[in-house]
Amino acid sequence: MVDANLENRVDALLHGAIDMHCHTGPSIMKRKLDHLEQIEDAERAGLRAVLFKDHFYSDTGVLEVIRKHRPAESRLLLLSGVPLNNALGGFNPYAVRHGLGRGARLVWMPTLCACNHLTSAFRYDLAGRLGMIRPKGLTAINARGEVIDELKVIFDIIAEHDAILCGGHLHATEMFPLFAEAKRRGVRRLLVSHPTFWIEADLQDLRDLTSMGVYLEHVACLTIDCVDRLYTADELRSFIDTGGIDRTILSSDLGQPQNPRPVEGFRSVIKLCIEAGYSDSDIRKLTSRNAATLIGLDEAAA
Amino acid sequence: MRISSASTVSAVVEHCLSKAVDLALGDPLLDTSFALDPFERIKRAADDGFRSILINDHREPVSPVAAFLRDNEAFRPAIDVVAGVVLNQEVGGLNVFAAEHCLLLAGRLVSMPTVSSQNYCRKFRRDLARASNARSALPGEQLTILDDRFLLRPDAQEILDLIAAHDAILDAGYVHLSEIWELLKEAKRRGVGRILVRDPDRYAGASPDEIQALADAGIFIGFTISQDDADLERFIQYNDVPREKLILHVMPDRRRERILSFADKFVSAGASTDDLRVVLAETGMRLLEGKSASSTLS
Fold it and tell me: Is pTM beyond 0.90 here?
C-alpha cells in the first residue's frame, strides 16, 4: 500500500535535488533513456541540476544544443564533465582545456580505462562485449608512487577553472597522492564516486579521504532494489556515517537498461534514507546541498 | 551540354543541391560561420536545400550530437546527418580510440589532424598569432603523421586499419603533401576505399600537377568556395581534375549566393550542365555512400 505521507515527503525532498551521476544516451553503451527523456523526468520531479556522464565523450556539445534549441523553457541546470578515458586521449590536457572552456564543470580521471578498473572489473570486459579495440590502461601514479607529470598540467587547468576533480575508477591507493598533488596545485573541489565499488576503499579510506576535504559519492544504482544492487541499507548507512553527512553525496549512477530510470532511483534512495532515520535536513545535504557546494552553484548565484 | 542562361544555371543548382551532401568543414582562419553549432549547421544545410550533411568540428567529437539529433523526434533534422571526427589534440591526436568511438556512434569519416597539424601551424603561423578565435597547438606539440624516418606512424596505421574495417572515409586533414603521399600509400595497402583531400593547394602546398596526380591516384579532391572571388582564380588549379573526383564544398554563410556566383563563372569558363551536377552533388554522394550516385541524379 502506498504511504501518501512518505510519497509526499519524498516528492518534497526530490524538489531541488542534484543528480551528479547520470548515464543517459546517446552512448555506445546501452542506455535506458536519453538525455532529453532524463531532462523531462528531472523537470517533472523538480530537480535543480543533473550532471550527465558518458565514459567516452563530454556531453557538453549535446547539452548545448538542447539548451539552445529545445522549445520548452527550463530551470533545470544541465551539467557536464570531461572523462579522461582513451577516447579523449587519456590524460589529455587539451581535452581538459577545451571541455572546461566550453562549460564542463568536472574532470573525471579514467574510469573504464583505469588500470584499476581493467584489473578489478576484468570479468566485465566491456571492450570485448562491444567488439572494441582493447583499451589502454591508465594509471595516475608511476612505479615510485608519485603522480605522473601529465596530470600536473591537468590539475593546473582544473584549478584555473575552479572545476571538480573526480577520481574516476582509480584505485583507492592512487586517490591519496592524486588529491594531495591536486590540492597543492590549487584544486579545491574533490570527489570520489562510489568509493567502495571498483575503487576498493574501506571505511578507514573513507575517513581519510574526507579528512582531505574530498566528497564521497554513493550511488542509488548499488543501494536501491534493482538488478545491480550490491549493498544493504545498513551498509549504506555505515558509508554515510563514516564519511559524515557533510561530506557525503547521493547520486543515481543510473541509466543502465536493467535498472530503474535515474529519477525513479533517486526517489528510492531518498526513501532508503528516510527509512534509515535521517532527518529531512540531513537528506537535503546528501541529495542537494553538498553537491551544490561541491559544484559551487550557490557561490555562482551569490 | 552547355548552359545558356543564368536561370538555367540556377535551376541546375537547385536540382543538384536536393541530391547533394554538405561536406564543408571550414577553416577557423577563413570562415565566419564557426559560431554556428552543429544543429544550426544542419538546419542551414536543410534550408539551403541539401539532401544530407556530414558534420565535423576541429576541436571536439560531434558524433554524439549527430546521434542525439537522429534519435530524437523533436530535434530530428529534415535531412540525413552523419558525423566525422578530426584527430586534433583535443581528442588525443592520432588516437585510434577517438576514431573508433566516432565510427561506433553515427560517424562515417575520420580526419587526420587539421589545425593541430605541424603543417598548418607552420604555414599559417602569422595568421594564427593574429587570430584570437583560432588557437594553435601548443609550441612543440604540433602533430605530424610521419615518424622520424618519414614513414607513416604506427598509430596512424592502426587508424587506417580501423577505417578500412568500418568502410569509412579517410580525410587527409591539413597535413603536408609529403605526408599525404605516405598516408595514401599505406591507406590503399590497408584497404581504405575512400579518401578525401581538401583544398590541397591551400593546405598541402600542392601544385596543379600534384593535385592532378592525387586525383589520378583515385583520391577525391575537395575544393572549398569560401568568402571571396579569389576562389575562382584558385579553381583554375583544379580545372584538369576529373569531375568525378572533384567535390565543391561551400561554407554556410551566404551559401546559395556563393554557389550561384561560382556556378555562373564555372559555366562561363566552359563547363557543362553535367560538370556542374557532378561537382556539386554526384561526387560528394559517391564519397559518402561508397557507390555510384549517378542513378539518383538523373
Answer: yes
